[in-house]
C-alpha cells in the first residue's frame, strides 16, 4: 500500500508532469473536441492509476527533495512528456497531410470541410481519413499501448537522469521520418493516378485545343479518384493503424 505523505504528493505531481504533458499532445486524448476539464481529469486519473506502479521506483531516488533541483526536474519531466506526445502526434499530422494531398490529387481540394480532429478546417476527404484513424486508434486498443509506453519511458528515461536533448532529437527525427514515409506510402496510389490522368488529359488538350479540356476532364478526375478511394481506403487505414501500433509497441 502506498503511504500518503508529503513526498508522495510531490512524486505524484512529478508523474503528472510527464503523463499530463504527453496526453496533452497525444492523438485522441488531446482532441480540441474534448473539453479542457475532461482532458485534465483524464490526465489526473491516469496519473493516479499509474502512481502505485511507478512511485516505488522514485521514492528512494528523491528523498529530501530541494526546491531548485526539484524545479529543474519538473521542467525536465514536462519536456520528456511533450516529446513523447509530439512523436505520437506527428503520425496523425502526417496522415492529415496525406489526406490533404489525396484531396488535391482527386480534385476535391476546393470542397470545404469542417474542423474535426484539428482546430483548422480540412478538405472533406482529409477530415474523413483523420477522424476514422482516430476512431480506429481507440477501437484497436492502441490507447493502452500509450499507457504501456509511458510506463516503459520511466525505465528508458529515468527521472533522475533528466531530459536528454540529443536522445530526444534522435527519437523525434526517427519518428518524423517514419511518419512521412508512411504518408508517402498511403498517398502513392493517388500520386500515380494524378500524374497519369493529368498527362492523359494534357495530351488530349494538345490534340484538341479548341475544347476546354479542364472543364470536361474534372468530373472524370473526381470520379476516378473516388473510385480508387473506395477500393483503397480500408487498406490505407489498416496500413496506418498497424504502422502506428508497431511504433507504439517498439518505440
Shape: elongated
On the 0 to 100 scale, the average pLDDT is 82
Helix content: over 70%
Rg, please? 23 Å
Taking the alpha carbons of the first and last residues, their distance comes to 31 Å
Total domain units? 1
User: Main beta sheet: strand number and arrangement?
Assistant: none
Number of strands: 0
Q: Provide the succession of SSEs.
A: HHHHHHH
Question: Can you describe what's shown?
Answer:
This protein is 77% helix and 0% strand. The mean pLDDT is 82. It is built from seven helices and no strands. Helix 1 (6-25) runs parallel beside helix 3, helix 4 (124-139) packs parallel to helix 7 and helix 6 (165-207) packs antiparallel against helix 7. The protein is elongated, with a radius of gyration of 23 Å. The longest helix is centred in the C-terminal third of the chain and has 43 residues, at 165-207. With 251 residues, it is mainly alpha-helical. The protein has one domain.
Q: How would you summarize this macromolecular structure in one to three sentences?
A:
The chain is an all-alpha fold and 251 residues long. The protein is built from seven helices and no strands.
Features:
mainly alpha, 251 residues, elongated
